[in-house]
Amino acid sequence: MASVSLQHIYKVYAGGVTAVSDFNLDIKDKEFIVLVGPSGCGKSTTLRMVAGLEEISDGELYIGDKLVNDVAPKDRDIAMVFQNYALYPHMTVFDNMAFGLKLRKTPKDEIKRRVEEAARVLGIDHLLNRKPKALSGGQRQRVALGRAIVREPKVFLFDEPLSNLDAKLRVQMRTEITKLHQRLQTTFIYVTHDQTEAMTMASRIVVMKDGVVQQVDTPQNLYDFPANEFVAGFIGSPQMNFFDVRLKRENNEVVAYFGDNKIVVPQGKVSKFVDESYVGREVVMGIRPENIHDDEMFLANAADATIDVKVEVHRWRRNQGCVRREPPALLRQGNRPHYSGVRCCSRADQDQSDEVIHFTQNFQEALFP
After folding, report:
1. Do residues 237 and 195 lie in contact, with contact meaning Cβ atoms separated by under 8 Å?
2. How many domains is the chain built from?
3. pLDDT-derived band of residue 46, with 50, 70 and 90 as boundaries?
4. How far apart are the C-alpha atoms of 20 and 24, rounded to whole Å?
5. Based on the domain organization, do 130 and 33 belong to the same domain?
6. Span between the terminal Cα atoms of the chain, in Å
7. Is residue 343 pLDDT above 80, yes or no?
8. Is residue 368 a part of any domain in this protein?
9. Candidate from 89-93, 127-131, 253-257, 350-354 with smallest mean pLDDT
10. Contacts by 164-169 with C-beta closer than 8 Å and gap 24+?
11. Range of 38's domain?
């Protein structure tokens, strides 16, 4: 097995278009790393550079202790699973899984052993004589996984492998891939635009935007301590609510004003200001939906963190509802129907100081975790 190290990696295309800029990441042996971000953020390009399918413009890539910038893809001891399965339609499942081993002139007995073992692990041993057209989408994806497993590589690469599956099957395959990682104890690098996939599968997540790494951390830390407004808005479903506010000092308290509403900033947050340099300035305030409540129990104890809102739309989606005030919208969790004239509050005044996060107006980085 192997670690992977990307050191100051750049990818610049003809015409000066930079797809990946100064990418730095050390991946430990047996780690499950997920690269996540919107379309065009550079995550697939980064994966393809690891695979050797894209040339590195600058920087160094190590697999284990070996510098592999100039090593051919077939010699990197990696296996890649693609979004479109890339199965040969005229071959059986067995032959598709065995194809790479045959090219390497692996002995027939060894090929048979590896293919049958991988098929048992993936639950497709009864499909070995079928051709891809006779398989469901989930079965085809398992064949693609099996083709990678039989190579027994040091590193597995996944490029949005679940994008072509329906919602129910995606959930099932997320579980299967996680179990596969636990069983194989191999390094996994996985690319997706779906933050739910990232949050449920990864040991660490790399959030990317415009070719630049925004934050690298565990799923829990990304959710609780986002480095900037982009990460806070991208991680979490429904996403964090954002308000443009001005901070003022009143009666030894710092108050966030937005429109006709105000919220007293918890002392735990105020104490993290550096010389209170942001008091009197405009910042962006972020509150997670689960920390917005309209229950009387909360309202009675949240006089300093209560606002009036007008409900525009109520949608049922598990525990999610949507209320709207001018100008921002509030997403909140709860199963009660809502109508106009709702008062709601944040729990942030009740010793829950990490439930409100502020960001600078210009650069949008978190003022404090």
Report:
1. yes
2. 2
3. very high
4. 11
5. yes
6. 35
7. no
8. no
9. 350-354
10. 164/83, 164/84, 164/85, 164/137, 165/137, 165/138, 165/141, 166/137, 169/137, 169/138
11. 4-234
3-state secondary structure of 74: helix
Q: Is the pLDDT of residue 328 over 50?
A: no
Is 45 a domain residue?
A: yes
Examine the domain organization and report whether 203 and 254 are in the same domain.
no
- Give the position of tokens 């949240």: 302
* pTM of the model as a whole: 0.85
Answer yes or no: do 220 and 254 share one domain.
no
Given a contact cutoff of 8 angstroms between Cβ atoms, the answer to whether 76 and 63 are in contact is yes
Q: Let me know whether 22 and 149 are in one domain.
A: yes
Tokens matching residue 139? 């079965």
Name the domain boundary from 184, 207, 234. 234
pLDDT at residue 168, as a whole number:
87
- The secondary structure of residue 130, as a DSSP letter, is S
Is the pLDDT score of 206 beyond 90? yes
Whether 222 and 235 have beta carbons less than 8 Å apart is answered as yes
* pLDDT reading at 337 higher than 90: no
Considering the domain architecture, whether residues 258 and 345 belong to the same structural domain is answered as yes
* Alpha carbon distances (Å) from 357 to 20, 134, 342, 367: 29, 52, 24, 8
To which H or E segment does residue 365 belong? none
Peptide bond into 327 cis (omega under 30): yes
| Cα 162 to Cα 173: distance, rounded to the nearest angstrom | 7
For residue 145, give the CATH number of its domain.
3.40.50.300
pLDDT digits 0-9 by tens, 279-298: 788 888 888 888 777 777 77
